[in-house]
Predict the structure.
Amino acid sequence: MYQNQRYASLLFPRPFSALYTYVIPETMPNLQQGDFVLAPLGRGQEIGIVWTINDQKPNFPNLKNLIQHFPLPPFSSAMQKLIDWGADYYFFPKGLVLKLALPTKEAITYAPMDEFYSLKEGIDYGKLTQERQKIIEHLKTHKAQKLHDILEATDVSRAVFKAIYDKGWIEKEEKPQIFLKDIDYEYIPPVLSESQKEASVVLQNQVRDAVYQVTLLDGVTGSGKTEVYYEAIATCLEKGKQALILMPEIALTSQWLTRFEKRFGAEPTLWHSGLTPKTRRENWRACLEGKAKIVVGARSALFLPLSKVGLIIIDEEHEPSYKQEEGVKYHARDMAIMRAKFEQCPIVLASATPSLETIYNVNKGRYHHLILNDRFGGATFPDVKIIDLRQINLPKGFWLSEPLLKEMKLNLERKEQTLLYLNRRGYAPLTLCHKCGYRVKCRQCSTWLVEHRKKQHLICHYCGYEETIPTICPECQNQHSFMACGPGVERVLEETRKHFPEANISIMSSDHISKWSDIQTLVAKLEAREIDILIGTQMASKGYHFPHLTLVGVIDGDNGIAGGDPRIAERTYQLLHQVGGRAGRADLKGQVMIQTYVPEQPLIQALKKENRHEFVEVELKTREEWGLPPFGRMVTFLFSGRNQNEVIKIAQQFVQAAPIVEGIDVLGPVEAPLQFIKGRYRLRVLLKIKTGLSAQKYLSLWNDGFKMKSSVTIDIDIDPFNFL
Ligand code: ADP
Ligand code: ZN
């Protein structure tokens, strides 16, 4: 039968937005939107996704045929919408956003197979060596064995196996791999408290109704939020749909997983930076094929192509790590909300310290609000004590005050654990020559190098540049004149050791913990109480649960008050609250001690009074006055290049070309606080946009009237978090 010729327009995971149109050959009669295909592109071939299908011949000469159609379920239309939306909103080429959803091409081209080996019939083996004999005997009694199992059972080397395989004595059979997570979850419901029950019923109904609705699940750490969203996940499974849980990578620990397994009787499918390429391929594919039922991952899991999403959870929704700062700069929480909208499913934002953006949306009635008031099982929030450092004479070079030391000592005697929190990596934030004041600068950035005593090095925290600590000051030629100023975690470790030589002390910071497995090890040690005192940066503030951790000491409650970041007060409040939430999570009462020189500042007072509301009110008022988010929006443009004058010229031309629109302020260009990073000069232009106006429309006006130079890079950041 004659059929109309059809054409497919493809989107490729490449840095452009254009769709490319191809002829659909007769061999692919069932090709549909969202399908994965291979097509000629430039001189080579590329995998793309069928974005649209058309019957009309487009007006191009020399249309080429598609090459191959991969036997996979299609990319859902919700995913297509998400990619389209993300590209428009964040102002990135569509193909680059698609690339986030196609992190491994092998997942598309290669169906995971398992290989099974059996003995061929009727072979005369002749005289066998002992090792060969072992393999033959094993296969006589065991059919269809995996190589791994054969080698393990016989304790024979792979080479021996290969030798007899090559003789043709053994045959191989390939079968599609069974996805291990493709098993039934058996949910064991806990006995919920009244308020947990109420909250979970609301969420379960949303899942059953399959409606788009954003809900803030709001409750202090330990109030049982996780248990509540587990209930909703169970309902999602009952409906035969997939659940997606995002959490900051660092919170994705074996602790969380063990707890999950206890409830669901099976492990979830994982997505984080520690996966092997093979597992990444398998898990990605299992998402697309609908086999992965519960998927837990860090930020980028948002782009996993789950085919039937029924629920999305964003744990610790206030975490700034949800903002991707490299490449396509997106906010995973915000994009997940859009995904829920396209998928027509509920989304839950869980936090003890919700972001002001989220609170604002709750106040506006856009988000539903569920509150869990108390800690589960009567555990109470820790007492917060403020230590006014103005009243205490800390000796020079020491950072632990008497009252804090006293509590630490008592804690040690009780065999309870202490967390000392200081958000500064390394030994000291500043190292200078005490004779002439010379400070060692990074060769490529406008930053001071930070001393890391363990490594015996000075390190740049922006580009990683390192050098040894000079023994002679390059400025005044004095010997051994370099001196550390201010505390870093390593220095606090040194001081703590002096006071408590018998205690087990560890550091938790990104210099000491870099891999996923390092986190697992440290958490296990803490659980086993092999660590008495943990000294941690913000890394230690995440949602762990250590029943014997009862004291949290905040070394510097004032760190982070200054600086040009509009969210700094919010961030500090969240961090201090979260870190305090580590104390006394079970039967033991916890205590938080905050050392500060400015005890009267609102955020310290709010912590002391446990009055988040008061802090939020003040902070929202300030933001409103200044037109900062969530009142109005921001966009930053970062101009950078090796040639300073050229960067200045381009940035100035850019600002001059700015269309004039009421309600939009174009500020700058100004030097970024870090004028140089990796030898590149940096200027920033900031847009402040009144609510209701579209940043994207405005940007497209501008884009048309402005030409860039290739030696100057311009980075657009919509809803920026980083102002350095
Ligand atoms: P959040 O997520 O709000 O920090 P969690 O859900 O982690 O709180 O709960 C804190 C602790 O209380 C956990 O150890 C959890 O297992 C326990 N818990 C919470 N709700 C229940 C419940 N209904 N039954 C038994 N244990 C619970
Ligand atoms: Zn540097």
The first helix runs from residue 77 to 90. Residues 440 and 449 are 6 Å apart (CA to CA). Residues 379-428+486-621 form a domain with the Rossmann fold fold (CATH 3.40.50.300). The mean pLDDT is 89.
